Amino acid sequence: MKKDKHEELMELKHDAVPGYRPVFLVVFAASCAYMAYILSTPAF
Fold first, then answer.
1. Which residue in 16, 20, 40, 17 sits closest to 28, CA to CA?
2. Quick one: pLDDT at residue 2?
Protein backbone atom coordinates (compact mmCIF):
# COMPACT_ATOMS: atom_id res chain seq x y z
CA MET A 1 0.00 0.00 0.00
CA LYS A 2 1.60 3.26 -1.13
CA LYS A 3 1.01 6.45 0.79
CA ASP A 4 0.82 9.59 -1.32
CA LYS A 5 0.43 11.96 1.59
CA HIS A 6 3.65 13.10 3.30
CA GLU A 7 3.44 12.39 7.01
CA GLU A 8 5.74 14.01 9.53
CA LEU A 9 7.28 11.94 12.29
CA MET A 10 5.70 12.56 15.66
CA GLU A 11 8.11 13.31 18.47
CA LEU A 12 7.30 12.44 22.06
CA LYS A 13 8.58 15.13 24.42
CA HIS A 14 8.33 15.66 28.13
CA ASP A 15 9.35 18.38 30.52
CA ALA A 16 12.26 17.64 32.82
CA VAL A 17 11.31 17.06 36.44
CA PRO A 18 13.57 19.08 38.75
CA GLY A 19 15.46 17.15 41.38
CA TYR A 20 16.35 14.02 39.44
CA ARG A 21 19.83 15.14 38.34
CA PRO A 22 21.21 15.83 41.86
CA VAL A 23 19.74 12.57 43.15
CA PHE A 24 21.26 10.68 40.22
CA LEU A 25 24.68 12.24 40.86
CA VAL A 26 24.58 11.36 44.57
CA VAL A 27 23.55 7.75 43.90
CA PHE A 28 26.15 7.42 41.13
CA ALA A 29 28.92 8.79 43.38
CA ALA A 30 27.90 6.47 46.21
CA SER A 31 27.91 3.46 43.89
CA CYS A 32 31.37 4.41 42.55
CA ALA A 33 32.68 4.76 46.12
CA TYR A 34 31.22 1.37 47.04
CA MET A 35 32.78 -0.24 43.96
CA ALA A 36 36.15 1.29 44.87
CA TYR A 37 35.77 -0.10 48.40
CA ILE A 38 34.92 -3.58 47.09
CA LEU A 39 37.88 -3.57 44.71
CA SER A 40 40.30 -2.32 47.36
CA THR A 41 39.53 -5.04 49.93
CA PRO A 42 41.28 -8.41 49.60
CA ALA A 43 39.17 -11.25 48.23
CA PHE A 44 40.33 -13.77 50.85
1. 20
2. 56
